[in-house]
Amino acid sequence: MTISRGRLILLACASGLLYPLSFPAFDLGFVAWIALVPLHLAVELTEPRRAFRAGWLAGTLAFTGSMFWVITAMNLYGKVPFPIAVLVMLLLTVYLGLYVAIYAGGLCWIRNAFPTFGLLPAPFVWVTLELIRTYFLSGLPWSLFGYSQYQWLSIIQLADHFGVYGVSFLLVLVNAAIAEVILWSFKAWRGFQIRSFPWPSAVAAAAAFIVALVYGTTLLTASEQMSARTISVGLVQPNVDQAQKWDVAFRQETLNRYSRLTADLGDDLDLIVWPEAATPFVFEMEPQYRVIVTDIAHRAGAPLLFGSPALRRYPNGKPFLLNSAYLLSTDGQILGRYDKQHLVPFGEYIPLHNSMLFFLDKLVEGIGDFEAGPGPTLLLFKPREKMPPMAAAATAPDFHLKFGVVICYEVIFPNLVRQFAANGADFMVTVTNDAWFGPSSAPYQHFGMVVLRAVENHVAFARAANTGISGFIDPYGRITQATPIFTQQALKGTVAVSPQRTFYARYGDLFAYGCAIITALLCLTTSFISQDTEPEPTGETPAGRPA
């Protein structure tokens, strides 16, 4: 069966257009189970070079559709001219599309060498490339395929062993099996050919899907019967406009807004959380405003976690900034500070700014370059004595809860969050300023990723965002509360204190690295087979498929 150039382009475009529909704001998660079917058909019906080009087209369209918000962030808030913002977004999505190109071309190449495998290698190759994308060039694991299922809680529970990569693996496995069955049906429509049915792919996909669904359903049912200790947390969503955030004239109004919303939370709280860079000043350097913040925490009667820049100096005296989250006691004592460790390229610093990219400036206005923090620091505080003890030790006077904080962009990195859970975090807090995204799909996509972080580690999350979405997510990914975007909100909820440690929290991306090893072995073996195989004089591939 041959395929024309036009049909190849149509198949690539179909996958490229279906992929973003799986993510917010469309939120058609079920589409993900068929989104890659057209691309897999193309892989089966062509040769590696053409598959590579088809994959690049599909990937570029897919990431353009899911990351269109980059234009809003750069043009509306970064003051980058619209044509340049569009060009930068396209450069980014063309780069991300390259991963899909490598996937399609590599899968076709492996398929030619191992025709009896069918498309079984597909999920291994896909997960390997997602793992590389998570770390290469600082990493950009946005729109990983598994995030599309954040609303289907039963199917994503497997992430407590395999991470979000395990969900991606299952999706690709099912997509590949459906593609193979479709191709078989085209060949067999004139007569039933049971022997040629793609049993390996079909059985593997069906078995994996059923096991994942049964495991997730059982786990969720059991979790409903469990009684977990909870604390009371208040979240403040001030909805401060990005254009006014660092305006000195608007500083007092910002603090008044925080004071009013914090008071609206009422008392009987164990912790209050403000968003990233909540204070429009350097907290440790502004004593007159520091008094105001301390007074708010004192009147609320609970420790206050808030974001603020921290100013430090190099040994030569040159200053630098940290994007920090402070934990402040009711009497004004700093109980701890977490410094953001994974910074946003071109947002908080410019890569190679002193050499190749000296002509660029950051999107963030009003403050200088940031430096990365030292690592996953846990913060400690003592909960209210009224709380029922989880164990006898909880009644001791020195009993404290430990929690981790991830700031904005950091929450999209699975292993970074995992380190807090592995170090003993009882729950997690994430603070962010998603005002940069504007009224786009990005705030919804960003919030959905937190669901997978909760499931991976079975740790509850409280999320405070300047313009939304703020909310609470339980250790199994249930969104218990969530706010609309661009509204002022004071949200009070409970957070489960989870002592359990998942397989993923203990061992990390073992599964993803296993996929990478298998992919490397397949590629190595394929290269040897390719060297030993002469091209067919009829123009057919070694697998007997037309080139």
Question: What's this model, at a glance?
Answer:
The protein has 547 residues and is α/β, with parallel strands linked by helices.
What are the salient characteristics of this protein?
44% helix; alpha/beta; six-stranded mixed sheet; single chain
3D architecture notes:
The strands form 2 sheets. The protein has a 6-stranded mixed sheet with strand order 5-4-3-2-1-12. Helix 5 (82-113) packs across helix 15 (510-532). It is globular and about 80 Å long. It is an alpha/beta fold. The chain has helices at 5-21, 37-44, 48-66, 69-77, 82-113, 122-135, 153-156, 159-188, 199-224, 251-264, 287-300, 414-422, 442-457, 503-507, 510-532, and strands at residues 230-237, 271-273, 304-313, 319-328, 334-339, 378-381, 401-407, 427-432, 461-465, 471-473, 479-482, 489-496. The protein is built from 15 helices and 12 strands.
